[in-house]
User: Fold these one by one.
Assistant:
Number 1:
Amino acid sequence: MSAARLWRITAPLAVGAALLAIWEAVVRIEDIPPYILPGPLLIAETLWTDGPSLLSSLLVTLRITLAALAAAAILGGGIALLFSLSRVLALSLFPYAVILQVTPIVAIAPLIIIWVQEPFLALLVCAWIVAFFPVVANTTVGLNSADRNLLALFRLYGASQAQTLRYLKLPTALPYFLAGVRISGGLALIGAVVAEFVAGTGGAETGLAFRILEAGYRLAIPRLFAALLLLSMTGILIYLVLDTLSRLLLRHWHESAIEEGEE
Amino acid sequence: MRGIGKRFGSGLAALEAIDLDIRRGEFLSLLGPSGCGKTTLLRIIAGLTEPSAGLRHLSLATSRGGQIPSGRIGFVFQDPTLMPWSTVLDNVLLPFRIAGRVGTAERERATAEIDAVGLAGFEQAYPRQLSGGMRMRVSIARALVTDPDLLLLDEPFAALDEITRMALNDDLLRLWDNHRPTVVFVTHSVFEAVYLSTRIAVLTRRPGHIVADLPVELPQPRERTLRTSPPYAAICTAISEHLAAAMAEEGPR
């Protein structure tokens, strides 16, 4: 491992450790009660003891998140493809995609929960609405970014529209699509959590968001922090997986996937 | 194969009243200042741009019903214009892939063409791993892989350094000698045009029209020593004078 790479890992870790140490010290010196601000050690302990019960909630949230992300990638990519094939369709539908994107999900989530009876599906729709736009917007740009001279060359050789799409436009759009999916990964998680907050259903199929609400009502602040920590870690994990996937798919040719100093 | 004839009389702002007959098997250079519409003219010849006036007529041996079959025309752009996600081999195979036939014969043909441009062993490399000159070689291999009757080159070596450029000049001549396609070569370098061509057409500034159309009577095949010979220098001087006159001339209108 190169020195630069070592730094990239150790520097943020050192900052994190220092901040946690300061946090713990402040909590102990000022004698702040745990229901206002628990120290990191207490949070870690709570995570350990409450872990199993939180984990089942995490799985519920994770299932919604991943389903929403998959739907965002597939439907988002599909919508972008339709937009690129028909200019009329793109011009007439794109504004509505924007409207859907800019409308706060908190405001429309209650409606969706009323309209869609099945709770899992309702939450999925909410998370999807938050997550799909980056994929559509990015992929649309990507599909329209094919090199003009390559397009001319395809025409010269008499390529059909399907061939131009398959051999030129889709590969050109791939990095854009993947960048969109990477953004959507985080948004899907946020969407799922926000929808759960609004839905607020209890019972066996309870997501992590409801656990956070519940812990807040009961002033079980260490548990709230533990749930929050789980959510952040999930978000980071999703990002890392998508980032790795993107690098793997683009490793041969795209600048974004080429390691520094490899040239 | 019959001869290739094209006739333009374009009222386009870029080009004006261009009459040009291109003969089979010749190496024609279109020489002119930047922005004189050379590229536009080349794209009209390729059928990539429609002339706003006048007629373009291509007669190729295999043409049927006005439709030129895929692969009869090769085009090399100013940039290598490769697909970065494809290997050298896949880039060269593109014309076959579009024609819907990629078999053993086509792979062998593509490999032979990669070999011919001096890139043997680089079949599985990606464009980003190659130098600018090597990328341009891939681009030329792709244009030649279908054995085109007509090869169009749009200032292909403009972005390359002088040494690479001279090497590619010689390679291009060698490849032309093997296949003997008709070549239309766009350039703004007098020396390159004289060294490569059998005929040079000089264009004026926009709206471009042809002010001189001269044969280059130098021995074939061209050798590197030619670059310093008196007849070469004499033709270069003559062409330069035509170009200077073309630059000075105010375009009509």
Number 2:
Amino acid sequence: MLTPEKMSRLLIVASKDQLSPVVAELYRHNLFHIEDYVETGAEGYEGFKIGTPLSGASEASGDLVKVRSIENAFSIQSDDFEVKTRRNQSELQVTIERELPAIEREVDDLTGKRAKLDAKGKEYEQKIADITPFIGIPGDLDLYRGYQRFVVFAGYVVHEVSIPVPNEMYFAKGKAGNFIVVVAQTEHRQDVERVLQEAGFRAVTIPEEAGVPKERVDFYSGQITLIKKEIDEINQKLDAIKTKHADFLVACEEVLKVKVEQTEAPLRFATTNETFVAEGWVPSASVATIRETLEKATGGKIFVTELPVDLEHDSVPVEYNYPSFAKPAQMLMDVYSRPKYTELDPTLMVSIVFPIFFGLILGDVGYGLILLAMCLGLRKFMKGEEGTLLLKVLRNASISSIFFGLLYSEFLGFALPWSPFMFSRHLKIGAETGGHGPQIPELMILAIWIGLLHITLGRVMGMANHARQDHGAHRTKAILANAGWICVMWGILFVIWSMVPMPYMPDFTTLPTLVLTFNIASVIGAVMLVAGVLFIARDSALEIVELPTIISHVLSYTRIVAVGLSSVAIAMVINFIAIGMLIEPQLESITIVGVLFIVMGVVVFLIGHALNLALGILGGGLHSIRLHYVEFFTKFYKGGGKKYSPFGLNRRFTED
Amino acid sequence: MVADVAVAAITDVTLMKASQLGMRAIGAGLAVGLTGIASGIAEMAIGSAAVGATAENKDVFGLVLLLTVIPETIVIFGLVVALLLIF
């Protein structure tokens, strides 16, 4: 439960004519993690070459590309797709040959047409933009060009100009700037240019059009509307194709993917002219099954053997192994790093402790219920594996939040009709001046206890990890160093307890004095401290610098109280502003302005609590997981394991 | 005469207590405020780097979100000190 699934290394050897039944069997069982063969001339593999794909590989991958491009055009994602019926693979293979090219042609035609229409629409829009400045000028568009003795200027100027040579000028003020058209004799060109230059002239191209500008613009606008209508029609047709063929397409993708993966599998094997060798990993429990099925499929013409595992050098793929309720926490683990094969797997602890931390921080029945409803509602929209796991993590967290909310007696910052079973977090804000008030010191002590136990657990797991991974003298030293960290931490605690009495912690101040003013507890504490420091220094003297982290890491757990209290405070302030200040005073005598205030109060209440919930989820989630990653994992966990990805596929849309 | 002195002493004591309370509140405020600024400065650099990293590769989002909240420890210590001062 605390270690990854046990793996065995398998070696499969057979003659090449057995390739396709072996590949098919391995694929069907979805258990064999192939160790890719690399031509490095490793010992025992001299003269071996990487295999060549089975027949049909290139056709299948060609078809797969086609299917995926169609799916792209329709934005279909097989992960988000509901499974309706499972199709038979062999039937499907026949239909693929027949139907896929037809669908492809149809879709290509339609998308091609749509692209052309899009381009045309863009072109017309550009034309409209070109003509628009000329609308304010009287005169047809064909009057602007075709002269030999005249030159035409059109463009924007900063201010009005007067041109000293004979000319004809039109000037129009518009939103885009002052538009000007000047027609002058060709010999005065330079004079006109100079004057215009001084006025900050920006030329525009004269459109190649004829007729009244306004009419041309209207004409093109009409064309664009027509094009849009056509595009809509095409989209409707595409939608129709999509609804008709979507499940066929995802099934096709799956079948082709299976085929491609199977036919290309020999690329990962070592081969000679007549034989092939496949190496890989299988969960130890399934070795017998794999061996039997392979022998059956090949009629015994195969050699399957288990190779010895070298934990130091082999990178064994890691598959989680824990009770099913812990599965969501796998997502939190993968964000950090998958455990190494030889390491203890803390997923189970994370799955239990994370929701507890979350609940301690966001312990509020109201917020918990809203979050729970959100998780259940979002399940319809988030289909991917990571998304579902995240929702499950949040669902567990929200249940814990409701549970602790009942203990804290909190509902959206209000008190529930009973007094808290745990320490109170009710602050004295606004009208709530009565009551117990928050029990901050008690809550802090609770958080520190949690921290002490969590860190001690981490160190114990560190000892176990070193015992499993290291050898010789280093092993003993590393284990003792971890024990040393525990000793230093508890030693400091003993010394503190023997000096200051604290609530909810052992009180050693009354113990009889042993040496000078020190009693027995402080002497024990001091001995533990010194011994611990020695153990740590024996493993690595540099680690001594890290000693202050003992205090800072334990104190870091007080964030459970601090973040939680800030969330409670915000909720209570929102309630006070919305109800105490805005709504309640108006309820005594309702006026029109009063109603306005009440509406305002409701808005403040809703927006405030929505924001606080978002902050609470973010704060509660991030700080809980941070306590794991930074304070807990650093004590024992390295990670960096290789993911176990067996050769095969969990078919969703098809069956053999 | 004696009564006057006693009254003056009592006022002095109440005044002192009140000012102590005020000083505590100021101390608590400073503890949260200054550590808040410090966290903000620390998160500024991490946050901008995190956004850049996410733009390059969306997979690191979870990790960088976590790195971004690491300096929040500072302000949490500040909050803890403030709470201890007041309560």
Number 3:
Amino acid sequence: MKWSNIKELLMHILFFLTACVSIFAVVLICVFLFANGIPAIGKIGVFKFLLGTKWKPGNDIYGILPMILGSLYVTAGAIIIGVPIGLLTAVFLAKFCPKGLYKILKPATELMAGVPSVVYGFFGLVVLVPLVQNIFGVAGNTMLTASVLLGIMILPTIIGVSESAIRAVPDSYYEGSLALGASHERSVFFATLPAARSGILAGVVLGIGRAIGETMAVVMVAGNKPRMPQGLLDGVRTMTANIVMEMGYATDLHREALIATAVVLFVFILMINVTFSLLRRKDRA
Amino acid sequence: MTMERTCKPVAAETINKLTFKDKMRAYKRSPLSLILLLLVCGAALITMLTLLYLIVYILVKGIPYITPDLFSFTYTSDNVSLMPALISTVVMTIIALVIALPLGIGAAIYSVEYAKRGNKLVQLVRITTETLSGIPSIVYGLFGYLCFVTALHWGYSLLAGAFTVAIMILPLIMRTTEEALISVPDSFREGSFGLGAGRLRTVFHIVLPSAVPGILSGVILAIGRVVGESAALMYTAGSVAQMPGQAGGGLFDSVRTLSVHMYVLSSEGLHIDKTYATAVVLLVIVIGINALSSFVAKKITKKQG
């Protein structure tokens, strides 16, 4: 065999191996998380762990229902705040925005996606927390604060995905509606938007993933009391916060319970990812 | 003569263009349209004002506290200098890129240039990269802690942090490189093959150079990701404020990056002024990175157009 042929073959194998790295990484992450987390769930008991309402590491009581509910509530709040604003902003960018303004606004939404979560968290801490405190007269670290902050943080995700979904709808839909006498606004909202439905939904699902996985910003504003969520104006602890708060000093079963929390979070994220890619596939078809 | 004057050509746009009065009349007839318009503009305004408020608030509060001793080379509990964190961030970013860049580019080359259409492995790779890009950073952090810090006995170290973030930015680099490779016209490859070049030579001498700007914009985004990362690094690189290698362990020393530094400062709550100043530095870096990436992206579209 000639040297150049050997070289070709070697590089082919090398490229093949690098392609396998991401598969390897996913497998490795699954193995490490599950191997360290599942035994703890077994030791604590599946139902006691998932449905237990008390988290008291000092007494070896590990129930993460408060954290699961905390994550779900905060995420739901973020969606309620973030989706309408994000979607309408995407409509503005795609169909209403003058070209000159677009050149400023589009990079601005990209910048929003790039701002580190600690900076968002700090902003929440010094602006939103006192705001909630003044308006409602309670300690400012509440579920509401976390929801508002997360709602802001998922805006760029929702705007980005929705905008490209809206732009992917053929212009003929919009033009047909205009020709039938509908106004610009009606055409956009009742002809173009419904056609972009599944793309927009994919954006919302991606936003849910972002919100449920967000850690630092939530830790900084949510209060982090490990008990059942009491209401909008009370502190919550999310699954992510649970891990970050206690991982630093946890040992033995406590540590494993935290890893098991990450396993639960991971399963949530996997479900969201599958939904997202199903929606996207539907969008393409 | 008069005919000519009255028949001045009118641009198509002006025929269909509604005057302000026409629009008002239309809105009066259909208030729903007006409401929709107001909603859309209002939402865009809220989004932009929020971003503007965040940036201006942090800049106004932070800039007065940017002092020379903030950039002193040693960190003490009195002077919480951000210099060690800044340098650690740079070193960590470089190492993460050194790890992730060859892997990501290689994987992209395989799936675009080597694999046949409908290759099962490529589909699997695509699914796993999508999974990787959806995993929250705290899960990466725990994985890094379990794998690099504990199982490999690296301890809290710069290297453990760099490996963790390298896996995080891998899907980003793969995706942008793939897109860049796909956008290289097939005629380039055909020309190269036609002149008798092998596949390897075609990839490295013809396809890859034309894809460099696209890859570069992916790299810039990846840098932004590393700079902003905190949850994944708390329990992999740790949070010791020192220069990389200051304690004598080289890459196995624990360091804190700028974002972690800011988180620690903010949760200690002792140096709020310095926290604002650190936030300013972080914001400036992120804005710079974003400007750079849109500059590169503009270059690409100009070249193609």
Number 4:
Amino acid sequence: MSKSTTPNLTTPSILSATATGLIAHTYIRVRGEQTGKIDVYNARTPQARVTMTLGTVLMTFWSASAAQGVLEGISAARATLTRMPAQVSASADPYGQPTIAVDWTTRPNYAAIPQSRIADDQRHTLRWTELHMGPLTWQILDRAAFHALTGILRDVHATASVVCLDGSKHRADPTADDYVPAQQPLQ
Amino acid sequence: MSTWTLDITGESRRTIIGTADNADASRAAALRAIGTANAAAGFQHHRYEAAVDGELLAIIQTGIDEAGLPDHRGIVELLDRITNATEDDPAL
């Protein structure tokens, strides 16, 4: 009798098993309105994944748990919204931004940290929020970016909870008022 | 005198309150307290909310490791990163 060796879910070790190098950490800085694109591959199979393209950032979610965890982390920045500016003006960057691709396999650790410093002109204080999350640190510079990110990731999570095999266990919306972050092992 | 608080939510909820000479020392003490609680968290996915002098310092949530267990080692790395991070210039 043959036995299937197909894993139920993709894990970080599977992803990194053949890698010759890994980027351990990087920063993503977001400000102002954001528009994202969501794609689905191999729905309802062990290899199901949802991708989100946000400017030059490509994120691949290999489980609903991962999508829920990332959305939960971004939502944690809600506690810092009142100190963040509504929208900061975008500065033109003729060289563009580096392209970053991140794979999320499961729920990441995260830390939301409000940050501030005096501007170079010594006339005002810059306030933003840093979200340390797995291999990334998000720098959210204004409320417009926060709301846009939350909206896009909410759609990603809703999609992942339908197309990923662990979706039924991770349907709860982290942005809902009655949501309680996970306190026990879920997998 | 500076005061720090740490709310730890797991199977139960508890609050730790401490004082230090100044805000920087309070910040360091709160982060150390998170590290201590994380080391004793066992199978719980602790959530930590720390404040210094009434201002939010950090919200930290335990994730899941490859074995499906609480990723306490990841929290240690996160704390190291936060402790060592300099205030990065967002170049507005």
